[in-house]
Amino acid sequence: MICVFLLALPALAHPVADRDRDAVAARRTRLMESIGGDYALLLAQPFSGVSQPRQEGDFLYLTAVREPAGALLLAGKGSAGLLEEKPAALLFLPDLAPRTAQFMAADFLPDDETGKLLGIAVRPIPRRPTPFALALAARLPPNATLRIPRYRGGDHAPLRDRKRKILDDLKRSRPDLKIADLDPLVARMRAVKEPLEVQHLQRAIDISIAAFGVAAHEIRDGGSEAAVEVALLGSIRRGGGRPAFPFVVGSGRDAARPHYFRNANRLAPGSLLVIDAGAAFKRYAADITRTYPVAGRFTERQREVYTAVLEAQKAAIASVRPGTSFAAIDRVARNVLKKRGLAQHFIHGTCHHVGLDVHDPGPSKKLMAGMTLTVEPGVYILKERLGVRIEDIVHVTAYGCVVLTAALPKEIDAVETFLAEARAR
Q1: Average pLDDT of span 200-224
Q2: If 0-12 CB within 10 Å is exposed, 13-18 middle and 19+ buried, where does residue 273 land?
Q3: pLDDT tens digits, residue range 242-285?
Q4: What's the CA gap between 404 and 138, in Å, rounded?
Q5: Nearest 5 degrees, angle CA 275-CA 280-CA 285?
Q6: Which pTM does this prediction carry?
Q7: Is 256 buried (19+), middle (13-18) or exposed (0-12) by CB count in 10 A?
Q8: Shortest CA distance to 234 belongs to which of 197, 277, 268?
Q9: Quick one: DSSP state of residue 75?
Q10: Where are the alpha helices (DSSP H) in 148-246?
């Protein structure tokens, strides 16, 4: 799945549990150790209209704060520390007027109570026109190196503007500072999941699998893509999750278009239906794809293509282990499809990292134990109005991998039984 811009509204209950607070504190400590004598600055997404934007993943990973406009400043373990401050980690939050905080449903304000809840020293971001860069400059020693992420991609355009403004102000007030890239260090950290992260991801997966079962009731000749999508969304929200991304629910010709998001047509009689959907729990995103026969049973041609994709996926999953690469896994899947004469119809990559973001950051050249990734080969034959994709999430272990989404059927007979039982409910 591609990553897209979603709204993330605050939860009614306090959004940070003790174990999540402790986890992000431990992550900050690890990052501070890894940057040595340097400093790190991470930025939250800025305010956007009257709604709260989807939080930037690195900032969320290191603070657990979903609200916009904050910043995190860290001093490396080998540095001189933050000047004018005792803490080595400072969380800056906007100093909102009371009515603004109420209107924006802000859970966190720059006060001692928030600091205790989050386990970090909190300071207010100066209100305009005072540049935030001055607050940073006062805390960094001479000739310091400040590491900051690049914030690539369309979702980060507002954040890049905020970063540019801060760096421009810093250059004027502190020309001695050196600016370096933080992306590689944080990406490596985020790629290897902690046990708590895997638990959150598994909860998102379980919510998603239940939703597939509810949605399967709507898969029938004469049904609609919209009805399937609504069933998915309703089940996910009732299960305690949120949609992790805009879902793909495409039948017939649209099953052969991997990123078809309109979900606006009737289910094409006798066709295949591709569902690419997933819940997010505490922002950890499930990403699962299954392909179903609208009529309830696969035709001979559909069985032929589906069997090839399933064989390719099983072979690819069997190749997942520490030390291998996305490219190697992709070759395994393509070689299977090549033998079936279908490789030319596989038009995307086989794997991506998954976690706080649907496309989580992380290295693709060498897998490590603890990583979580998708394995999702597909065949898309537009002229036949036929598309098949099967996507599972796997957790890399010391000796191979575990399929976290194994509870959702994908064998042909099991898929047909799954649909029959869903329709009978």
Answers
A1: 97
A2: buried
A3: 999 999 999 999 999 999 999 999 998 899 999 999 999 999 99
A4: 47
A5: 75
A6: 0.94
A7: buried
A8: 277
A9: E
A10: 157-173, 183-191, 195-215, 225-238
pLDDT band at 3 (very low <50, low <70, confident <90, very high): very low
d(CA 44, CA 56): 6
Per DSSP, 267 falls in state P
Tokens at 289, concatenated:
């794809």
Strands 401-403 and 71-75: unpaired
DSSP 8-state symbol, 54:
P
Q: Which residues is 53 bridged to in the sheet?
A: 7
Q: How far apart are the first and last CA of the chain?
A: 30
- Burial (CB < 10 A; 0-12, 13-18, 19+), residue 196, is middle
Tokens of residue 148, six digits: 């900051």
Q: How confident is the model over 362-402, as pLDDT tens digits?
A: 999 999 999 999 999 999 999 999 999 999 999 999 999 99
Residue 362 tokens, joined: 């992380």
Residue labelled with tokens 């970063």: 163
Specify the 3-state DSSP secondary structure of 97: coil
Amino acid letter, residue 26: A
Pairwise CA distance, residues 188 & 205, whole Å: 23
Q: Two tokens at 419? A: 């649909």
**123-127 average pLDDT score:** 85
Q: Are 244 and 286 in contact (CB under 8 A)?
A: yes
Tokens describing residue 241: 């999750």
Q: What amino acid is encoded at 61 in this protein?
A: Y
Indicate left, alpha or beta for 362 from its phi (over 0: left) and psi (-120 to 50: alpha). Answer: left
Which distant-in-sequence residues (6+ apart) come within 8 Å of 17 by Cβ? Answer: none
- Domains of the chain are 18-190 (3.40.350.10), 192-424 (3.90.230.10)
